[in-house]
């Protein structure tokens, strides 16, 4: 091992003795891996938000720095000097060029005993990365972000392949978790008993979003819940043979859904970001199922909140797996 | 043509199935606030409802109706609501944008005389209109934030107007009743009789905002989500249990009310006895509301009310005189506004209860609450028995019994006192504290109690609301003390200085109170 882990452990002990990091409560060891300086900055900010809320030992594996670099500090105060009551430990390690076994030994040596290890993997290629393959068996939850890793579609495919090979691993994709207010909004349309039947009469779906992964997930979620299968590159067939046409448009900021419209033979259901307020979704229903207009607030859609949800969920999510599978079928059909 | 759903009479939304439980309350509803121009509404209830809106927990199909004497029209009341939210919400949560616009559009107001039945007919028409306009589904939550004498009047008028239930079983009707629930056992029973004529117990939500506080709810988690406490949670290991609700403030502007109430009615009969029930109850079979409330009721029924002869030896009362708090001189109770200069009202009450059951036989439960005490502090202390054998011999340091402290306010958390050896060659032993604070353990701000409780009422979860049998039992427990205290003047009043630990009689009642 070329990283000086003894020094890191010594500094941790010293800080505890000198009360610099008196961590009363530890909920997890949070490991993040990145190889891009800009991604690293973005991650530091989000993880800090998370760490002050959930006291943790944070281990940032920085693929842009050499192995001789390390820093042991506190997660109590951010880089602007703003300090909070919660206390945590913050370790940064340079891992550029590190061997897979070295990364594994970092986790073995530094992870807190008896609390879960959560890995945020902010690098691509999970399917073919030996470093990822070496460390993922040692963590409880993997947090992935398919819409922030270059090609959304490629990232989704890799995730499908990985989960196919490792069905028991707990993975959360932030791109999927980001859909929560939209899933809630779309489900809300059909909560009334008198409207449920409209779900089985849907003929068209339109999704406008700034990234492909979120759109495919939303489409995959609808398809898996309503037993639709892709029967052409731009349409599904339901179990009764009815065709449901779908259209995806690229619109708005990255990683954000902008609009979802569902059309049945008699009604139209539209969920759309409020033009003057990005924190609320306007819900409109016209036609036979007409309903007074509503507004649904979007809460906690920031990355830190999504990571938190991924960690707290902690278990395998069957709906996510069904959705991912359906999304991959749609991708395969479109590619063909 | 609509394709038939896969199963006949399908009533489950397949998009909802499998989604993580939403924070949003799914059932639509109208909430009617009686007393909507009052202090409680503007300071607590309205901010709680708007905060729920911001947090996404309020039903999407929702309407708010204000019902009070003050003359407003709908627009005037919306303006009033916005002004109050601007005043009482944190800066980053003040009303603005489409969320406020949507919320405001759902606000209606009826300027009403509580005694005029025609105003309740108007209310019925408005709620029917809301059901149409806002999709509130015939679900109505009536929140009584009025002075207590108005409670039975409102309940009766709701029945007369046909607002108690739906003829066609469309939607639900619930009623939230603020404390105090009666001023003594007789008045509580009289109020309950009026409610019984109109609402079933399952529709009645008696609110005690103390129960909405996070550390109070955590009592249940501490006891029943851990294995290490329950085996020692009994007379074999516990020496006594102390429950304290102390204030450093005086009666402020509530002198008129407080001089008729006193500490026993204001705090012990409701908040403090509720805490006792949570600490002492047997493990419920589930977290279902009635399973928990059954156990609370059972443990209260195991406490025998004191006979009149026993009142003096099982309780202590006090009244503050002038003193010093935070370095500032403060006046005595009898010098407060709207307080009688020869008032006999207690501003401090302490009670010692014994629970006559297998678990707690012989363990005193000591309850105290007071105003103008040394500091603001609410906590539950479980004091364990001393070690059975002095291992280090008689010549070594005193070994203190273990304490478990459930901190409710101002700090929220759990502390444990245990003994540890002082490093070195000698066998010195000292008490150390292991101190868990919610603030440093979780960087999550607990939702205000009212937000939690209003949400539970809309959901139909009665867990944190007090059932009539528990209210009645709590009144039965304090009634002999109230009777003796009101029928006998305490000539020692004022008997404790503001800023002190309370009256000497409290120490005589129980010498081992934890220091405030």
Question: Any overview of this molecule?
Answer:
- The complex is a heterodimer of chains A (336) and B (516).
- By secondary structure, chain A is an alpha/beta fold.
- Helix content of chain A is 38%, strand content 29%.
- In chain A, strands 9-10-11-8-12-13-14-15 form an eight-stranded mixed β-sheet. A seven-stranded mixed β-sheet of chain A has the order 3-4-2-1-5-6-7, sandwiched between helices.
- The longest helix of chain A is centred in the last third of the chain and has 18 residues.
- Chain A is elongated, with a radius of gyration of 22 Å.
- The model of chain A has no long low-confidence stretch (mean pLDDT 86).
- The longest helix of chain B is centred in the middle third of the chain and has 26 residues.
- Chain B is globular.
- Chain B is built from 14 helices and 18 strands.
- Chain B starts with 28 loop residues before the first strand and ends in a 7-residue tail after the last helix.
- With 516 residues, chain B is of the alpha/beta class.
Quick take:
The complex is a heterodimer of chains A (336) and B (516). With 336 residues, chain A is an alpha/beta fold.
Give the SSE map.
The complex is a heterodimer of chains A (336) and B (516).
Chain A lengths: L4 H13 L10 E7 L2 H17 L2 E7 L7 E5 L14 E6 L5 H11 L6 E6 L7 H6 L5 E4 L7 H14 L4 E4 H4 L2 H10 L3 H7 L2 E8 L2 H15 L2 E4 L2 E3 L5 E8 L6 E8 L2 E8 L2 E11 L3 E7 L5 H11 L4 H18 L1
Parallel strand pairs in A: 1-2, 1-5, 2-4, 5-6, 6-7, 8-11
Antiparallel strand pairs in A: 3-4, 8-12, 9-10, 10-11, 12-13, 13-14, 14-15
Helix pairs in contact in A: 2-10, 5-11, 9-11
Chain B lengths: L28 E6 L4 H17 L6 E7 L5 H15 L8 H9 L1 E5 L5 H18 L5 E5 L6 H10 L12 E5 L7 H12 L7 E3 L7 H11 L13 E9 L8 H26 L8 H13 L9 H4 E4 L1 E2 L1 E3 L2 E3 L17 E7 L9 E7 L6 E8 L18 E7 L3 E9 L7 E9 H4 L7 H11 L8 H20 L8 E2 L6 H6 L7
Parallel strand pairs in B: 1-2, 1-4, 2-3, 4-5, 5-6, 7-13, 9-18
Antiparallel strand pairs in B: 7-14, 8-12, 10-11, 12-13, 14-15, 15-16, 16-17
């Amino acid at each position: 091992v070329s990283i000086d882990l003894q020094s890191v452990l010594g500094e941790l002990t010293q800080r505890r003795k000198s009360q610099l990091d008196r961590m009363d409560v530890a909920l997890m060891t949070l490991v993040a891996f990145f190889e891009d300086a800009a991604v690293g900055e973005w991650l530091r900010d989000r993880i800090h938000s998370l760490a002050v809320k959930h006291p943790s030992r944070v281990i940032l594996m920085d693929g842009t720095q050499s192995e001789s670099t390390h820093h042991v500090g506190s997660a109590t105060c951010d880089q602007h000097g703003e300090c909070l009551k919660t206390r945590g430990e913050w370790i940064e390690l340079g891992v550029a060029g590190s061997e897979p076994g070295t990364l594994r030994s970092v986790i073995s040596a530094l992870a807190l005993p008896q609390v879960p290890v959560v890995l945020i993997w902010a690098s691509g290629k999970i399917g073919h990365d030996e470093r990822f393959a070496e460390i993922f068996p040692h963590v409880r939850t993997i947090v992935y972000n398919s819409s922030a890793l270059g090609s959304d579609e490629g990232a989704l495919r890799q995730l499908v392949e990985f989960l196919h090979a490792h069905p028991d691993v707990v993975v959360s994709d932030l791109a999927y978790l980001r859909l929560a207010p939209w899933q809630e909004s779309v489900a809300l349309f059909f909560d009334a008993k008198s409207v449920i039947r409209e779900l089985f009469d849907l003929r068209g779906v339109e999704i406008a979003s700034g990234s492909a992964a979120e759109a495919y997930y939303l489409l995959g979620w609808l398809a898996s819940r309503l037993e639709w299968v892709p029967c052409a590159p731009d349409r599904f067939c339901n179990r009764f043979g009815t065709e449901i046409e779908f259209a995806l448009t690229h619109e708005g900021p990255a990683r954000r859904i902008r609009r979802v419209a569902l059309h049945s033979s008699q009604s139209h259901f539209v969920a759309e970001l409020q033009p003057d307020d990005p924190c609320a979704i306007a819900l409109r229903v016209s036609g036979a199922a007409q309903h007074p207009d509503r507004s649904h607030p979007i809460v906690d859609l920031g990355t830190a909140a999504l990571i938190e949800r991924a960690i707290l969920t902690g278990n395998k999510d069957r709906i996510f797996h069904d959705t991912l599978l359906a999304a991959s079928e749609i991708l395969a059909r479109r590619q063909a | 043509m609509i394709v038939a759903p896969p199963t006949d009479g399908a009533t489950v939304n397949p998009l909802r199935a499998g989604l993580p439980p939403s924070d949003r309350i799914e059932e639509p509803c109208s909430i009617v606030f009686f007393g909507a121009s009052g202090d409680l509404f503007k300071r607590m209830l309205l901010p709680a409802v708007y905060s729920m809106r911001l947090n996404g927990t309020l039903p999407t199909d929702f309407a708010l109706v204000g019902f009070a004497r003050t003359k407003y029209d709908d627009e005037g009341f919306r303006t009033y609501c916005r002004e109050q939210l601007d005043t009482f919400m944190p800066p980053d949560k003040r009303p603005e944008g489409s969320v406020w616009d949507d919320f405001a559009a759902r606000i209606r107001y009826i300027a009403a005389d509580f005694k005029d039945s025609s105003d309740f007919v108007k209310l019925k028409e408005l709620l029917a209109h809301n059901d149409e306009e806002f999709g509130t589904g015939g679900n109505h939550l009536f929140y009584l934030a009025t002075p207590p004498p108005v409670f039975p009047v409102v309940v009766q008028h709701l029945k007369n107007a046909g607002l108690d239930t739906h003829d066609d079983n469309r939607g639900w009707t619930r009623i939230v009743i603020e404390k105090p629930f009666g001023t003594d056992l007789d008045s509580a029973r009289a109020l309950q009789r009026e409610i019984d004529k109109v609402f079933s117990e399952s529709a009645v939500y008696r609110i005690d905002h103390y129960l909405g506080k996070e550390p109070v709810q955590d009592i249940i988690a501490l006891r029943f989500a851990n294995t290490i406490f329950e085996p020692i949670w009994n007379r074999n290991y516990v020496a006594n249990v102390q429950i304290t609700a102390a204030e450093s403030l005086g009666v402020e502007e509530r002198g008129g009310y407080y001089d008729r109430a006193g500490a026993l009615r204001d705090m012990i009969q409701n908040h403090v006895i509720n805490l006792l029930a949570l600490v002492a109850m047997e493990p419920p079979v589930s977290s279902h509301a009635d399973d928990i409330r059954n156990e609370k009721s059972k443990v209260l029924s195991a406490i025998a009310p004191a006979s009149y002869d026993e009142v003096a030896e099982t309780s202590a009362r006090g009244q503050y005189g002038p003193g010093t708090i935070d370095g500032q001189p403060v006046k005595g109770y009898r010098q407060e506004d709207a307080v009688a200069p020869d008032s006999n009202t207690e501003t401090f009450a302490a009670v010692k209860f014994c629970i006559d059951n297998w678990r707690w036989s012989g363990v005193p439960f000591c309850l105290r609450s007071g105003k103008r005490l040394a500091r603001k502090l609410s906590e539950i202390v479980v004091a364990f028995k001393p070690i059975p054998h002095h291992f280090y011999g008689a010549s070594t340091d005193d070994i203190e019994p273990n304490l478990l402290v459930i901190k409710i306010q101002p700090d929220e958390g759990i502390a444990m006192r245990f003994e540890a050896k002082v490093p070195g060659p000698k066998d010195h032993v000292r008490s150390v504290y292991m101190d868990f604070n919610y603030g440093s353990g979780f960087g999550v701000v607990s939702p205000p109690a009212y937000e939690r409780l209003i949400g539970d009422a809309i959901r139909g979860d009665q867990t944190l609301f007090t059932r009539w049998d528990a209210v009645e039992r709590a009144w039965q427990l304090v009634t002999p003390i109230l009777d003796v205290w009101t029928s006998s003047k305490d000539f020692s009043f004022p008997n404790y200085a503001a800023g002190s630990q309370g009256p000497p009689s409290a120490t005589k009642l129980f010498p081992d109170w934890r220091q405030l």
